[in-house]
TrEMBL record:
InterPro entries reported for this sequence: CRAL-TRIO_dom, Spectrin_SESTD1
Keyword Transferase: no
SUPFAM superfamilies in the cross-refs: Spectrin repeat
CRAL-TRIO domain sequence ranges: 1-136
Protein's recorded name: SESD1 protein
Keywords: Repeat
Pfam families in UniProt: CRAL_TRIO_2, Spectrin_SESTD1
Gene name tied to this protein: Sestd1
Similarity section: Belongs to the SOLO family.
UniProt GO MF annotations: phosphatidylinositol-3,4-bisphosphate binding; phosphatidylinositol-3,5-bisphosphate binding; phosphatidylinositol-3-phosphate binding; phosphatidylinositol-4,5-bisphosphate binding; phosphatidylinositol-4-phosphate binding; phosphatidylinositol-5-phosphate binding
Organism from which the protein derives: Illadopsis cleaveri (blackcap illadopsis)
PANTHER family, per the entry: SEC14 DOMAIN AND SPECTRIN REPEAT-CONTAINING PROTEIN 1
Record carries keyword Hydrolase: no
Length: 679
């Protein structure tokens, strides 16, 4: 109860009841109770109160005798509380005081009201008339808490010590094996610590039985080792638990590091294994747009698989960065090595994916340009295979211009194909740098041969088209020249017709005198020279059309009727010109003779002795007048007059007047001859 005798020894109370008391259980209970006090308290001895008021004498005697075997050295006094006047006769049969030497302690029989003779009332409970406050159930509950805490804390300390010591000794594998086997304690350290703190708080307050206002004597005070033992256990627990938390932290960090390392190796192994193998098997570039697109689609599937691992890489990189920022010095080297290894592999694989994607894109562009160029060459070849049947020179020029534009477009397309092909070849030549030792010469050779073959094929097709364009260009230029010659020849006919028309309509004057007529004659000859040049030019053009037709192996479209027209107009012009020359020459003779007659003086009559001159001039004048009224007759029988009738009448009137003057002159010369004989 916490009560003490006058020697400061603890008081042990054994309340007996009417029921049968088990000595074995009592012995165990006494052993437990006597194990509680400290050795110092035990040295002061115990005073045992055996409350036999509700028990039988033989039970009391058995209990007293049992004390000899259980606690003989610690018991100094045994007070047997007897019932009033119940055991007086029986006591005579067994005197405890006579057995003191054999028992080892003094036994007295005392009534409850007389216990105060041996023990102070303040050290006795109310059951024995004392004032000591004691609640057995409260003590029992607190003791159970204490025992539970002691048991759990002691077991927990052993477990934590095993875990902590196992982490400090042996090799890394031994530490990990020890931690793995004993990593989790059987109880929660936080719960045990909380229980201990609550228990210690109540022990320090020394209030186990609810006395109002006052502080009662605690049966679990310092002398009973409760408070110091709890404090010691709490200190040990805190120390071991702190170490345990550090071990857990290290283990968690190591586990996290191992998980990161495992994930890193998973990423690295996949990228360097299946991922790289996927890229190794994808070396082709396709032989057409559709094939390249199919390879691109396959590559996108590969990229999709890589993206999942790249996402893991990003997550791992963030975790490693976080550990580097908060990690210990001993982990920095390993973490940095993991991060560097992961980054190197991922960046290398990403570079390979990007290279492959760029290569396929370049191949797609190359095949696209090749297809466009092939279509252009097909269109150009189709245009060249169609025979040219233009309507005129302008359409030929337009066709020729279109042909040149197509050829220029083909040249540009071929140049673009060469540039794309060279760029693709350059990329293929760099493919060996990430082949992981795999010989890609054979695969690359097939790609290179395909690219060069496409470019050479396009070059040959373009060269053939160029040759055909040269032939077609020459033919079309000849056709342009043919049309030009035909047009110019037709123009020469028109010009000659215009000259003939001008000759007939405007070249009608015969001159007023011989000088003017001679001038007109000279102009006419020059006019004829122009017509002759025009005719010769037309003949040359027509001869050229014949040569061009022979070269083109075709008949001229219009030269067949141009030559007869040219010859017909020229013959008409020649006939008209000869008539014009004849009239002018006749006019020159007429004017010359007339002017000679009219300019002679009358004083020279001998000059006119020959009157035949007058007859001749009259004949010339009449002949000229007759010619003015006669049309020009062409070889085909057609007729044409010079000028209009009024123009011809004007020219004839001028000749008649001059003939009148000559006739008058003739009469004047005849009158003197008639008067001379008469005189």
């Amino acid at each position: 109860t916490g009560g003490k005798d006058r020697r400061s020894g603890l008081i042990l109370t054994i309340p007996l009841c009417l029921e049968q008391t088990s000595m074995d259980e009592l012995s165990v209970t006494l052993d437990y109770l006597l194990s509680i006090p400290s050795e110092k308290c035990k040295a002061r001895g115990f005073t045992v109160i055996v409350d036999g008021r509700k028990s039988q004498w033989n039970v009391v005697k058995t209990v007293v005798l049992m004390l000899q075997n259980v606690v003989p050295a610690e018991v100094s006094l045994v007070c047997v509380v007897k019932p009033d006047e119940f055991w007086d006769k029986k006591v005579t049969h067994f005197c405890f005081w006579k057995e003191k030497d054999r028992l080892g302690f003094e036994v007295i029989l005392v009534s409850a009201n007389k216990l105060t003779r041996y023990i102070e009332p303040c050290q006795l409970t109310e059951d024995f008339g004392g004032t000591l406050s004691y609640d057995h159930m409260d003590w029992l509950n607190k003791r159970l808490v204490f025992e539970k805490f002691t048991k759990e804390s002691t077991s927990l300390l052993d477990e934590l010590a095993l875990i902590n010591n196992g982490s400090d000794k042996g090799t890394q594998q031994e530490r990990e094996r020890s931690i793995d086997l004993n990593f989790l304690p059987s109880v929660d350290p936080e719960t045990v610590l909380q229980t201990g703190h609550e228990l210690l708080s109540e022990l320090q307050q020394r209030r186990f039985n609810g006395s109002d206002g006052g502080v009662s004597w605690s049966p679990m005070d310092d002398e009973l080792l409760a408070q110091p033992q709890v404090m010691k256990l709490l200190d040990s627990l805190r120390e071991q638990y702190t170490r345990y938390q550090e071990v857990c932290r290290q283990r968690s960090k190591r586990t996290q590091l191992e998980e990161i390392q495992q994930k890193v190796m998973q990423v690295v192994n996949w990228l360097e294994g299946p991922g790289s193998e996927q890229l190794r098997t994808q070396w082709g570039i396709g032989d057409s747009i559709r094939a390249s697109q199919a390879l691109q689609q396959k590559h996108e599937e590969i990229e999709s698989q890589h993206s999942e691992w790249f996402a893991v890489y990003v997550e791992l990189n963030q975790q490693i960065a976080a550990l580097l920022n908060a990690g210990d010095e001993e982990d920095l080297v390993e973490l940095k090595a993991l991060q560097q290894q992961l980054s190197d592999v991922c960046y290398r694989q990403a570079s390979q994916l990007e290279f492959r994607q760029n290569l396929l894109q370049a191949a797609l562009e190359f095949h696209s340009v090749a297809q466009d160029l092939s279509q252009q060459l097909d269109g150009l070849l189709g245009m060249l295979c169609v025979d040219v049947a233009p309507a005129d020179g302008a359409s030929i020029q337009q066709t020729l211009k279109l042909l040149e534009e197509k050829l220029k477009s083909v040249d540009s397309g071929l140049q673009g194909l060469r540039e794309k092909g060279q760029s693709l070849l350059d990329q293929i030549s760099n493919q060996a740098s990430w082949a992981y030792g795999k010989d890609v010469t054979i695969e690359n050779k097939e790609n290179v041969d395909h690219i060069q073959g496409v470019m050479e094929d396009m070059q040959l097709r373009k060269q053939r088209c160029e040759d055909m364009v040269d032939v077609r260009r020459l033919k079309m230029l000849q056709m342009v020249q043919l049309f030009k010659c035909e047009e110019d020849a037709a123009q020469a006919v028109e010009w000659l017709s215009e000259l003939l028309d001008a000759l007939l309509k405007t070249h009608i004057r015969l001159g007023d005198d011989a000088q003017e007529t001679k001038v007109l004659l000279e102009k006419h000859r020059k006019f004829v020279d122009v017509a002759q040049s025009t005719y010769d030019y037309g003949r040359q053009l027509l001869q050229a059309t014949v040569v061009l037709c022979q070269s083109l192996r075709c008949t001229s479209r219009s030269s067949g009727d141009t030559l007869p027209r040219l010859n017909r107009v020229w013959k008409q012009f020649t006939v008209t010109s000869e008539e014009r020359v004849h009239r002018l020459e006749t006019a020159v003779a007429f004017h010359s003779t007339a002017e000679k007659i009219l300019q002679e003086c009358p004083e020279q009559p001998d000059t006119f002795n020959d009157m035949d001159q007058f007859d001749e001039i009259e004949a010339v004048g009449k002949s000229l007048l007759d010619r003015l009224t006669v049309p020009v007759v062409y070889p085909d029988g057609s007729e044409q007059y010079f000028g209009s009738p009024s123009d011809m009448a004007s020219a004839a009137e001028h000749i008649r007047e001059k003939m009148k003057l000559v006739s008058l002159k003739k009469q004047q010369l005849r009158q003197p001859e008639a008067t001379t004989p008469d005189s």
